[in-house]
Amino acid sequence: MKCRTCRGPAIIELPRHNANFCAEHFLQMCRRQVEKAIHDHDMLQKTDRVLVAVSGGKDSLAVWDMLVELGYQADGLYIALGIGEYSEESREYTERFAQERNLKLTVVSLRDDYGYDIPTATKVTGRVPCSACGMSKRHLFDKAAVDGGYDVVVTGHNLDDEAAVLFGNALRWDVEYLARQLPVLPSRHGFPKKVKPLIRLTEREMAAWCVIRGIDYIVEECPMAEGNRHIGYKEVLNLLEEKSPGTKSSYYLGFLDRMVPVLAAIAATGADSVTPCVQCGAPTGGEQGSVCAFCRLVERSAAHEPVSVELIRKKSRSQKRVQAEASKK
Amino acid sequence: MKVILRNPRREIEIEGRRRVHALLVELGLPRESHLVIRNGTLVPGDEELDKDDVIEIRPVISGGF
Ligand code: SF4
Ligand SMILES: [Zn+2]
Ligand SMILES: [Zn+2]
């Protein structure tokens, strides 16, 4: 196998590009895809102060690495979610990455700073872990960006993530979610601008970026993600990809090109009135004098005794058994 | 050869030599969701793995959002 660019020995094959690459030209391909995404969707300016949401996983560390390499001023924010060993290890990877490169990293701890963690919040809300977790992360990234005077928040969502979310939204024909599934959310009503520079790169490519660049990241899955719907969608899309390379990118990038304009009128409607939360001042969709969802979650979770990761996992497994048995009947 | 699998981490022994993609097929692991790594370097699909090699097959799908 030879590199498409230099004819030297290849280290990775990318069927969707109908090409193989050596390490150097693989990295070059990735950089170009990121630059193209940034340029096509007007994501970042070189003068922007950028805050990268880092989790210790491959995508967020790779995007931080790429942006710094491309000359952006990018700092990191890590949120310690209190998901047992998984959280401890992912924090170590993140801190090591930042230290080795002399990058600025801020750590916010749910337990130390807000008196709760994700397993406890999951118990309190009675919903899937990713729901309380996603909401907490969004709130804290927004807050850190506004408080720190950042122009834009970067997340490591890649092509597989976006294609899986699109697949889920289209399965349910959730038109409002479809209309808002954009790679750039402009800043409005006190929310910072948010962008996803990795939308043109797959998970496999991001993992390969990390291996080639010598970036250690947490390979283990978040234990709360088990059985998560998105993983199922990704597996389905990868089966199609294997049969017909390029399916994922034509699905998602075609959506951006051809469906998003059709949905633009719907995206423009929707909740436009925003008031500040009376407790933390964050913008919220509620009426005057209301408390935001994050503050309500903090209050309920902090009052609850801490719950272990294992307990939540046992509960979700037994729930699944009950569902499986019910569906057999 | 020694094959290290992840999530959870475990090791298996495979007898004899194999090409990378043959090994993935044999283990039922889709190429699109795995990387094969030997001594910290990526190994392409057509490479022949030796019986003394130690390789890692790393899944690349992550959940959550
Ligand atoms: S998988 Fe879900 S619970 Fe785990 S870190 Fe991601 S969003 Fe949070
Ligand atoms: Zn090359
Ligand atoms: Zn609030």
The biggest sheet of chain B amounts to:
5 strands, mixed
Largest sheet of chain A: 6 strands, mixed
List the secondary-structure elements of chain A in sequence, H or E: EEHEHEHEHHHEHHEEHHHEEHH
Helical residue percent band of chain B: 10-25%
Q: Report the top-level CATH class of chain B.
A: Alpha Beta
Any idea what the shape of chain A is? globular
Give the averaged pLDDT of chain B, no decimals.
Answer: 92
Distance between the termini of chain B: 36 Å
Q: In order across it, which strands form the biggest sheet of chain B?
A: 2-1-7-4-5
Gap from first CA to last CA of chain A: 53 Å
* Structural class assignment of chain A: alpha/beta
Mean pLDDT of chain A: 93
The CATH H-level homologous superfamily of chain A: HUPs
Assigned CATH architecture of chain A = 3-Layer(aba) Sandwich
Provide the list of bound ligands, each named once.
iron/sulfur cluster, zinc ion
Give me the Rg of chain A, rounded.
20 Å
Task: Report the CATH topology name of chain B.
Answer: Ubiquitin-like (UB roll)
Give an overview of the whole structure.
The complex is a heterodimer of chains A (329) and B (65). With 329 residues, chain A is an alpha/beta fold. Chain A has helices spanning 23-40, 58-69, 84-101, 110-114, 118-125, 129-147, 159-171, 175-180, 203-213, 229-243, 247-268, 293-302, 309-328; strands at 12-14, 19-21, 49-54, 73-80, 105-109, 152-154, 184-185, 193-195, 275-276, 283-284. Chain A has a single domain (44-268, 291-321), classed as HUPs (Rossmann fold, 3-Layer(aba) Sandwich). Helix content of chain A is 54%, strand content 11%. In chain A, the strands form 3 sheets. In chain A, strands 5-4-3-6-8-7 form a 6-stranded mixed sheet, sandwiched between helices. A two-stranded antiparallel sheet of chain A has the order 1-2. In chain A, helix 2 links the parallel strand 3 (49-54) and strand 4. The model of chain A has no long low-confidence stretch (mean pLDDT 93). Helices cover 12% and strands 38% of the residues of chain B. Chain B has 1 helix and 7 strands; from the N terminus they run E-E-E-H-E-E-E-E. Chain B has one helix at 20-27; strands spanning 2-5, 10-13, 18-19, 34-38, 41-42, 48-49, 54-59. In chain B, the strands form 2 sheets. In chain B, strands 2-1-7-4-5 form a 5-stranded mixed sheet, with no helix packed on it. In chain B, strands 3-6 form a two-stranded antiparallel ribbon. In chain B, a hairpin with a 2-residue loop joins strand 4 (34-38) and strand 5 (41-42). The longest helix of chain B has 8 residues, at 20-27. The N and C termini of chain B lie far apart (36 Å). The relative contact order of chain B is 0.32. The structure holds iron/sulfur cluster and zinc ion (2 copies). One zinc ion (ZN) binds next to helix 12 of chain A. Iron/sulfur cluster (SF4) sits between chains A (81, 118, 129-130, 133-134, 222, 224-225) and B (63-65).
